[in-house]
Amino acid sequence: MKSQRILVLMHETLVPPDSLKGYSPKQVLEFRSEYDVVKQLKTLGHQVRCLGIGDDLEPLRKAIVDWKPHIAFNLLEEFNGIVSYDQHVVAYLELMKVRYTGCNPRGMMISRDKVLSKRILAQQGILTPSFVAIPKGKRFTAPDHLQYPLFIKSAIDDASLGISQASIVYSVAKLKERVAFIHQHTGSDALVEEYIEGRELYVSILGNDKLTAYPIWEIGYVNNASRTLIATRQTKWNAEYRQQHGIDSFAAKGLSTSLRQQIETTAKQIYKALSLTGFGRIDFRLSADNKLYFLEANANPNLSADEDLAASAARTGDDYATLLDKILKLGLSYKAAWMT
């Protein structure tokens, strides 16, 4: 690809330094994705500018008008401290007639709303754990149609926010306590669903219309594959915790050819049903009897060079440079409404 003017969007506190010298691993983790993407785009020969965004879109408007980027590389995960507002920044890019990488606003909104996603997919016959949403600010009423144990998480947040071992409950008292925790600590409604014992599988997908599924990935205990893991925030983002407990993510093993095909086909069906574009990740639970349960869909998942998406892509021969190049091309070719 010829050199492009690329405006990389990120949170204002995550604008990466030119060098990692003098930064601790814990500090680097905060802006790892931003650093990796910016560095690789520059290595590919593109003209790159970083733009940190907080609660004001004027700097974005000015950068678009003054610099006229060919495309915005979207790494933004919130706006004004509200995670669900990142979709509005992408909508603003469309209003300004600027191409961008990653998911469109509609797909971001639908996939983030876990309750809406599950309802849409249930209409298509896709298996998902039985659930109920408990709105913040409403009187707690214990669901009587769900079987314990139950799993409680935020209805909109991602990155395992608010998820811990305490997210699995076995009684009404603990359910009420955990729902109150989610309401208080995430500020969102609580999603209560039946807990599915099994393997946690991820499928990363690239594409707008024609879709590519990368190899199925799994997070689990390296030396005890039969032990069920809960993908808590500690499990996903604390390297020391992962090493201490022998947790890692890796290419899923022991799946038959027909089961792999089923998982990939279902992931693509979900991706399309939820209007995702660019790239995304579909999360599943696979029970001991090989029943596949949809958990959630993630638009614009983590793009660090050592994260699951990049690792899965590498299994097919797509190194990090190739992965970012494909994401760029998908952004440049996406047909937004203003282009029709």
Topology at a glance:
Layout: E1 5-11, H1 25-30, H2 32-43, E2 47-53, H3 58-67, E3 71-74, H4 86-95, H5 105-112, H6 114-123, E4 131-134, E5 150-154, E6 168-169, H7 172-186, E7 190-194, E8 199-206, E9 212-213, E10 217-221, H8 233-237, H9 239-245, E11 247-251, H10 257-273, E12 279-286, E13 292-299, H11 308-314, H12 320-333
Parallel strand pairs: 1-2, 1-3
Antiparallel strand pairs: 4-7, 5-6, 5-7, 8-9, 8-10, 8-12, 10-11, 12-13
In short:
By secondary structure, the chain is α+β, with helices and mostly antiparallel strands. It is 36% helix and 21% strand. Strand 12 and strand 13 form a beta hairpin.
What does this structure look like?
This protein has 340 residues and is of the alpha+beta class. Among the domains are: 5-102, Rossmann fold (3-Layer(aba) Sandwich), CATH 3.40.50.20; 130-194, ATP-grasp fold, A domain (Dna Ligase, domain 1, 2-Layer Sandwich). Helices cover 36% and strands 21% of the residues. The chain has helices at 25-30, 32-43, 58-67, 86-95, 105-112, 114-123, 172-186, 233-237, 239-245, 257-273, 308-314, 320-333, and strands at 5-11, 47-53, 71-74, 131-134, 150-154, 168-169, 190-194, 199-206, 212-213, 217-221, 247-251, 279-286, 292-299. A hairpin with a 5-residue loop joins β12 (279-286) and β13. α4 (86-95) runs antiparallel to α5 (105-112). The protein is globular and about 60 Å long.
